[in-house]
Amino acid sequence: MADLVYHAFAFVALFSHGLYHLISVTRAHLAGPSSSSSTSGRGAAVAADHTARPYYPLALAAHRHHLLRHLPLYLALLCLLVAVAVHAFFSSPDGARAAAQCFSYLESAAALFLFLLLAASILILPLPADVVFLLAALAFALLSAASAHSAAGYQQSELQSKCDSISSLVSAASATSALIVAIAPRLFVAELALAASIALQGLWSFQTGISLYVDAFIPEGCHQILGVLDISTICDLDSSRHRADALLDLAFTVHSTLIAIITSIVYATSTRAYYSSGLVRRHNGGSYEALPASSSTGTLSDMDHIQMKAFCKSSTQA
């Protein structure tokens, strides 16, 4: 039961954070300065000078809602604290694979602790954005390695091995995206892929939880074995294991397609909202005036100051 609760917690934390970053990246991309124009108000190329940022505050007035504007960052810190504590202190595998599993848990705890330090640095000592993304790529790579080691510690007949191997693949995709963003911070697609991969990891955590610990979703021919400290879900026959692996592959394909659809909807909806509401304003027969964005290395107060200037400017022009 505790494992299922943690997987549900990871799903809520990762999916919500990935979706929030996905929306924020798209809004920043659309609000960035544009060097091109179009005869159609909705068809202009935008954000030629957009630079990736590791954190986007909520779009609220800085002088009245300082705490609420940075609520996503505080929630991320809280979730990371819980995740580090669970992996470091409350994960105690038993059986012959105990040593290997303990190593993978500690490896995951180290990667999550690095994420915790990066989130805290935004509040205390802001680092350059490229450094943050480079360290995030390292942390994602550690998570990928931890999941791979965990998968290797299980027998092939155990479903946990398949679930962890797919989780390792998603973390590797996140590490690759973060590395590309660190090298090319103006590449909008890479930052979008990073946000989407985080949301996908959340969905896969949910799928792992129900596939391993909910009887109604355990593949046919597989069953749970209660250990002293943990629960294993195994398939007795090779045919049942192959069928279960195919079902998990299908579930991963469905989740990936769902994330792609969500990403397309977010981008299309944000584009429509920006061009219909005038947040990206057209002047002089084709040029666009965009709301200013904060620098990639700015502190929280810098973000508040810049976004407040944009708010005052739009009010004056209205």
UniProtKB/TrEMBL annotation:
Transmembrane segments: 71-90, 102-125, 131-154, 166-184, 246-268
Keyword Cell membrane belongs to the record: no
Any Gene Ontology CC annotation: membrane
Top-level lineage group: Eukaryota
Record membrane topology: Multi-pass membrane protein
Keyword terms of this UniProt record: Membrane, Transmembrane, Transmembrane helix
Compartments, as annotated in UniProt: Membrane
InterPro entries: DUF716
UniProt family annotation: Belongs to the TMEM45 family.
Protein name listed in UniProt: CASP-like protein
